[in-house]
Amino acid sequence: MRLHRLRVTAFGPFGTTQDIDFDELSAAGLFLLHGPTGAGKTSVLDAVCYALYGSVPGARQGSGQGMTLRSDHAQQGTRTEVCLELTVAGRRLEITRQPPWARPKKRGTGTTTEKAQSWLRESTPEGGWKDLSRSHQEIGEEIAQLLGMSKEQFCQVVLLPQGDFARFLRADAEARGKLLGRLFDTRRFAAVEQRLVEQRRTTAAEVKDGDAALLADAHRMQQAAAEDGREAELPLPDLAPGDPGLATEVLAWAAVARTTARERLTIADGALTAAESAQVAAERRLGDVRELDRLQSRFAEAQERAARLHAREAERRECEQRLERARKAETVAPALALRDAAEAEHRRAAQEETRARGRLPGTFEAAGASGLAAAARKAAEELGGLGSARRAEQRLADIAAERAALDRQERADDEVSQDAAGWLDGWEATRAALQERVESAQEAATHAERLAGRLEPVRTRLDAARRRDRLAQDAAAAQDRALTAREHATSTHEHWLALKEQRLTGIAAELAAHLTDGEPCAVCGATEHPAPARKSAGHVDRGAEEEALSAHRAALESRTAAERELSDVQASLAAATAAARSGETGADESAPGGTEPSVEELAAAVEELRRAHAEARDHASGLHAAREALARAEREYDRRVTGRQEAARRAASRATLREALDREQNALEEELTHARGTTGSVAARAAQLERQAALLTEAADAVRVADETAERLKAADARLADAAFRAGFDTPVAAADALLDDARHRELQHRLDAWRNEEAAVRSVLAEPDTATAAQQPPADLPAAREEAEAAARRLRAAASARDAAARRCAELDRLSARTAAGTRGLAPLRAAHDRVARMAGLAAGTSADNERRMRLESYVLAARLEQVAAAATVRLRRMSSGRYTLVHSDDRTGRGRSGLGLHVVDAWTGRERDTATLSGGETFFASLALALGLADVVTDEAGGVRLDTLFIDEGFGSLDDQTLDEVLDVLDSLRERDRSVGIVSHVADLRRRVHAQLEVVKGRAGSVVRQRGAA
Fold this sequence. Notes:
single chain, alpha+beta, 6-stranded antiparallel sheet
């Protein structure tokens, strides 16, 4: 990496723009950056770091994303900017960064914050710059990839802070580890340590979880092995999760518990068998006692039933006699039923006759059936003669309805005539107004078409005027480019001619370069060349001349292209000017005297025409509606005229119809006066005759039915008296009293059947041999036998429960034991993995006994890097100390701390090795400088071998004597052998005399400025 140029504006102490040419400073290989305290020497290095990484080292970055980087001396409108041009990995890049800043608002008062901006450009072979990116993230990733270093590594390797390395020499192992860890990025090794610790913690938790599950199963087995709520006889192992041997102890305890449970199951099986035998014997004895008790109770019950039957013997005989009389009376029952039916029928007929006669006039009270029938026929004949009168009465009602309809029609026609007369009175004025509206809309439509024809040309002229103004600007720019191209073509032509003339002047040297001894000269032919011409300084060869010619030809082509572009633009401008002045259809009257109208004038004309056209179009849009309104009015006129004529015709028809209705009504009223009689209407007279005929007919039928039922009742009485005498009854009443209904007969018969069945059943029970034998024995003791059987059953249930509980304990213990064994087998790989991870974690953390030096993994890696740094630093330290000092790495432990990052210095004068903290101030400086340079080499190799051609060393030279200072400067000057340039940041006045290339930072009230002086 080589720095070329740096430009800072309003950055840090620099209130104005400052340019620094590192190429000029680096020409001597060694340059000095000096200035008074606070002038801004470190700000130059901060600007380099900010350009590369977008931030500055340490606390100087501040907060607010770099807003504190802005110079307090800068003008209010000047933006902070840092631009760095450098070469890295063979690519020349330009990085420009602008931090966020609070600029004044363009409108109003106050400020507004603009975001940070970044640009990355790359130099092209043609000499220009190509934009690569404007993204902060992309630029940061690109620079980090090219440099291969983080900001912290860059600040330690390129901007060598000697104070930090002096502290590094005197620091303990922990402080050195922090610095080396940032530089060499050993976070992955620390992550490995942390990962091992996490894995150890995780596997330990998994093992404890497995042990906890085993103990939980053991507690469940202890609860399962407990009998009747008592504690298990064998206590659990006194171990905690994670203790060694826990699984083996739990498995052994489970085996003992299973053996004890099986022994108890065998004892329970024997007890259950004995209880089952005792229960069977008790149940057999209980059955025998129950049978004896049943037979004795059966015999006693039969004796009681026999005594009850004997006590009810008289009641039994009375029931038998009652059933016998009922059986005889059943022969008289049909005659009794027939007489009762005849009597009921006659009673109903007599009641109906009385009711029918009560609704007739008194004149028919003594009339018989035949007289009543004759009167009914007479009323029916009179009713038949009223049909014609009914039709006449209905026609009168229809005539009244027709008259009412004619009156309604007459009123409606009068309203129509009046409405039509009122509307037709204003018809001429209405038609004239509508016609005027149509004509006005037609004129607006014609005007809108004329305006549309005028609007389009003016729009075309407006577009041409706008194109004219734009092309005028393009023509001015093309004129400038053409002028520049002409000047460039002229200068390249002059340059080519000068080179050609210079080449011709030194052509002898060019030809002499091709001479060979013994070969003839191309000019004179001589084979000897005693004094061939030599090329002078600044000799121009054929390649340089051809290159200048090519440049001249390219410039001519550029000039031709620029002139062609200018001609095209001018032609387009002339066409646009002509179009804007006269339009596409000829000259316009709005531009008198041939003057070119402006865009504003044409825009105003377009807007005026557009407004007038819109108004005319809006007015014309009502044409269709106006025509429709006129057509509707004409149709309404025709409809009203026609309606008035139709009303007049209907009035004439109504007069004729009324005269005919009057004549028909008079004739019908004469006919109805005769037919109504004393009633109010024909319908009333007809209803009177209909009711009278119906009542007479009903009464005649009722009298006839009553006479018939009386004859049937008399015959039934005679048949009943004869049937009762033959059945043995004195009177029909006695026979009727002896009859029984079905329910009573069934009841008596059921009682007799029950007595007979009970008597047979009692005799059967008393005759049974077993029952009689049991009656002779002592009374059975059933409660005692039942109590004995229940006790045996309770003992059996207790034995069965005990046996089931023992079986369940065995099954549960077997299940839990199997699960415990499976858990133990599954836990074995976890325990082995935990032991392995724990050993590795202890070894990586330096806490294991196998790690004799208690060196962590990260410290081990850093120790290797420190050993490389010490070796690289020793090369320069020997030169600075005249071969006296050598830096060596030490992995010895210091006190109770860990080892691996010790750093000692070997004194060749004494041959002894001692700590770097014992060096003097000057010795510490050049030792830290050698360490910084060595660290830069190692970090560079670590970053992928990126070449670092520009380095800065900050302070510390004041502690050296003249001889040592010369030696240090010789070492720094030797860096030029690798084409490096080193910048020294120092206050030492003697360095200004020794180092000629200088960059001075001068501070003032208006801010700091830089002064640059080359090596000459």
